[in-house]
Amino acid sequence: MKKILLVVGLVLMFVSNVFAESITIIPGGKAGGSSFHRATMYQEVLEKMGHDVKFKNIASMREATKYLEDTRGKENVIIMFASNQPAQMGYYITKDNFVLHEYAAPYYWCMSNDAKDKTKLKVGLDKNMNQKFSDALFNALGKEVVYLRYKGSGSLYKAVTGGDIDVMFTNQVKSLTLVGNKLGTCIANTSKSTQHSIPSIYTIVDNSLAFPVMDYPIVSNNTTDEFRNLLLEANKDSIFMSWRKKGGLNEIVGTKSKDDAFKLVEERQHYWK
To answer: What is the DSSP letter of 200?
Structure first.
């Protein structure tokens, strides 16, 4: 029995300490956005677990992924982002960089309370978002729109709550926050079913256009099982669990094997090409 306990103890010690020398976290977005918030949570939890964590804020996603590749074998680097970001610049998630898939969620079109009766709408989009998805919705609704571009979900939320735009097309966290704070309502979501009492876009638009569902993976230059297990352990912390519960997020982490999670991300990232 003592030998068994010794072996178990050594295994747990290995998982928690093998990468304790240094982990570099790069947020895949600006402060105020979901990816940045995920990065700060990982920093807090990994430090609590006893790891030396460096928070490296690189504004350019292209430079961030280059840094990850250039430091292979030298430094343990992780980047968390939404799947549209790397795909839109030609950096794809592969088995050589995929380590974890946290959660998936549709996108939502949500409007401020003051915009309900307007026929001409100012619609906010992420700077890299293809406007064809919103064109399909507002053409079906018979609305005239003007598009304005923003850096990310945090900027979109500020714009719609501040009256700079009437509608935002953004992630689930910011959308449900708007509704929860009674500052607006959501028109539709991009999944094929009703989500949080918000109808599917496919009940409004009658065409063959495939609307995107957003995946939230983590890429790294260390894709070993040991490193993945370390991040899985971090995700059990109440900080992550309460945040995802509050956002009503469809958790992937811990529910699928690495291969199955990768296949899901690989298949859906091509929406964003």
So the answer is: B
Domain 2-105+214-272 sits in CATH at 3.40.190.150
Q: Which amino acid is at 175?
A: S
- Reduced to 3 states (helix: H, G, I; strand: E, B; else coil), residue 146 is strand
Cα of first residue to Cα of last residue in the chain, in angstroms, is 55
Q: How far, in Å, CA of 273 to CA of 269, rounded?
A: 8
Q: Give one DSSP letter per residue of 10-62, joined into a string.
A: HHHHHHHHTTTT-EEEEESS-TTSHHHHHHHHHHHHHHHTT--EEE---S-HH
Question: Is residue 144 within a helix (H) or strand (E), and if so which, with residue range?
Answer: strand 144-150
Largest CA distance in the chain: 74
Task: Write down the pTM of the prediction.
Answer: 0.73
The two domains 2-105+214-272 and 108-203 share their CATH topology (first three levels equal): yes
Looking at domain 108-203, its CATH architecture is 3-Layer(aba) Sandwich (3.40)
Cα separation of 233 and 227, whole Å?
Answer: 10
| Domain positions in the chain | 2-105+214-272, 108-203
| pLDDT for the residue numbered 16 | 44
Q: Collect the ranges in the chain with pLDDT lower than 50.
A: 2-19
